[in-house]
Amino acid sequence: MPENFSQNKTPEQNVKTSIDKILGKDTTLKRRRKTSADLKKEIFVKFINIMLYLDIRNAELNSKFNMNMDDYDEPFMESLDQLLKLTFNNRQLEIIYFYLYERIDIEGRPIAMKDDNDNIIPTNTPEEVWYAIQNL
Question: Are the C-beta atoms of residues 81 and 88 closer than 8 Å to each other?
């Protein structure tokens, strides 16, 4: 049975050490296999993070170096929009586009997205956006 935590161990190994100490005996941890839904969520989150990066990169190039990349990037962004339209319905697209382009106002303050009943739709992270579009 492992005795101590270590920075050289993986987080999983340190969790195992903690569980072993609590139970007072050696245990075995098994990973749950990722489901198809888990993999789709990971791909979606990665996609959204890349889209945010591209938007920030374009804004920085424009502000720091006076390089307006809008005309250059337009066909690329249009192709991504078309892929999104193939995958998601209009309401889901509203949530995705809100997160990417509208959730922060000009002064940098967050804006809450609301549904038709005036309930706030959590859209602070890509994971929250994923869960919001899955509920539609």
Answer: no
